[in-house]
Automatic annotation (TrEMBL):
PANTHER family in the record: PROTEIN ABCI7, CHLOROPLASTIC (PTHR43575)
Origin superkingdom: Bacteria
SUF system FeS cluster assembly SufBD N-terminal domain segment(s): 23-164
Segments forming domain SUF system FeS cluster assembly SufBD core: 172-402
Protein name (Swiss-Prot/TrEMBL): Fe-S cluster assembly protein SufD
NCBIfam families recorded: sufD
Taxonomic lineage of the native organism: Bacteria, Pseudomonadati, Pseudomonadota, Gammaproteobacteria, Chromatiales
């Protein structure tokens, strides 16, 4: 396996060099960052189980593939996620689809641009690739190959009431990679809501490797939603970096139900006193799926609060990981950090890894973490059966009760309803449970 991964490193470098002409018109600062990124990837390579953060991840199948950069968007159907009055940008195989997109009028102080048309914006030189872990191989791949994406800039005091929905769809073209890049800068007192939706065909093998950078200014607020329902044969590896300034607010929700291999990493930094962050996750797995959430929350200063709550429902022969680290820096007194992970196994063949952790380097903090992995309560199942409810329906009701708590923090009603339908589709006794709840 190691030799295969090493060969793949060189393959990606060769593709990068082969496509140099396509980048000839890019600004010098971007060329330097891309070159540094591909060199970094060559040095780092694909991660292996020997690295602590990847010890549960089987990279063998990914290491055997070479996903070429997607060149043009194929044909896909419309998304079932319909958010009323939303600003919608659609990308097919990583390429912008103007016909399917709808921006409408934007309020004063709000700018939304395609990444491919925004390289000359000084905002990108200032922020792009500045919030990320410099030693992350997949973030490096994205920086090297990102061809399109979205740049959102909210000037101080700007409030965007309409949600921004980013629809990243994949066609049935196999063997391609897309590297969407998202940058949102919300200056002081600005507010916005962002929805990322990733979807693809069931049987097509492809790679989606997005990077999202969110910069939240003083007393600014950002709601972020990610719905990952890639096709069953797909790979999805995502990096999200969030910086929150003084009195800033971040409400994040990640829902994962697709892909044969899916991983979302969130790097969250609370940089100013009074910063507040909530991060919730729901992952649903079935036969042959691996779903992974890694979170790093840094309390860099005192008087900040963070709350994390992740839940997983695992069925069939599937595997899921939640690994979360909360770091409280020296001098970050009056920190309040809560972290919780709960997993429900619906199959004897399902495997959940839960590893919430705390690193505290100061006194006078409030911090707690909890973790459970278990099955449906047999006594409760027996009670429901004794009331005339069938086995599958009883299991579905109890599973819904376990997972539905994760719907509550979703403030965009259309997104909440959509996630509820994703949950229903995974429940035993689907239709009956839908009617009963």
């Amino acid at each position: 396996m190691g030799q295969a991964l090493e060969q793949q490193h060189s393959v990606y470098l060769e593709e990068f060099e082969r496509r140099a002409g396509e980048r000839s018109s890019e600004p010098a600062w971007l060329s330097k960052r891309r070159q540094a990124a591909i060199e970094r990837f060559e040095r780092l390579g694909f991660p292996t189980r020997r690295q602590e953060a990847w010890r549960n991840a089987n990279m063998h199948v990914l290491g055997q593939q070479h996903f070429v950069l997607a060149q043009s968007g194929g044909t896909v159907g419309s998304s079932a996620l319909a958010v009323a009055d939303a600003i919608r940008l659609v990308f097919v195989d990583g390429r912008f689809d103007s016909a399917a997109s709808a921006l409408g009028d934007l309020p004063q102080g709000v700018s939304i641009q395609r990444l491919a048309e925004a390289w000359g914006d000084p905002l990108l030189e200032q922020y792009l690739d500045r919030q990320l872990d410099a030693e992350h191989p997949f973030a490096a791949l994205n920086t090297a190959f990102a061809a399109d994406g979205v740049v959102v800039h909210l000037k101080a005091g700007a409030v965007l009431e309409r949600p921004i929905v980013l629809d990243f769809a994949r066609s049935e073209t196999a063997g391609q990679a897309a590297y969407p890049r998202l940058l949102v800068v919300a200056e002081d007192n600005a507010e916005a809501r962002l929805v990322e939706h990733y979807r693809g065909p069931a049987d097509t093998m492809y790679l989606t490797c997005p990077v999202t950078e969110l910069v939240i200014g003083a007393n600014a607020g950002l709601e972020w939603y990610k719905i990952q329902e890639e096709g069953d044969a797909a790979f999805h590896i995502s990096c999200v970096a969030v910086d929150v300034a003084r009195d800033g607010r971040f409400n994040g929700n990640s829902v994962a139900s697709g892909g044969q291999f899916a991983r979302t990493e969130v790097f969250l930094r609370l940089n100013g006193e009074g910063a507040d962050a909530e991060l919730n996750g729901l992952y649903l797995t079935g036969d042959g799926q691996y779903s992974d959430h890694h979170t790093w929350v840094e309390h860099r200063v005192g008087h900040c609060a963070s709350r994390q709550r992740f839940k997983g429902v695992l069925d069939g022969k599937s595997e899921a990981v939640y690994d979360g680290l909360v770091n409280v820096a020296v001098g970050a007194a009056k920190t309040d950090a809560q972290q919780e992970n709960r997993n429900l196994l619906l199959s004897k063949r399902a495997l959940a890894h839960s590893n919430p952790r705390l690193e505290i380097f100061t006194d006078d903090v409030k911090a707690a973490h909890g973790s459970t992995v278990g099955e449906l309560d047999r006594d409760a199942l027996f009670y429901l059966r004794s009331r005339g409810i069938g086995q599958a329906d009883a299991q579905g009701l109890m599973t819904y009760a376990f997972a539905a708590e994760q719907l509550e923090p979703i403030r965009v009603s259309a997104v909440r309803d959509y996630v509820r339908e994703l949950l229903f589709a995974r429940l035993p006794g689907d239709e009956t449970v839908r009617e009963m709840v």
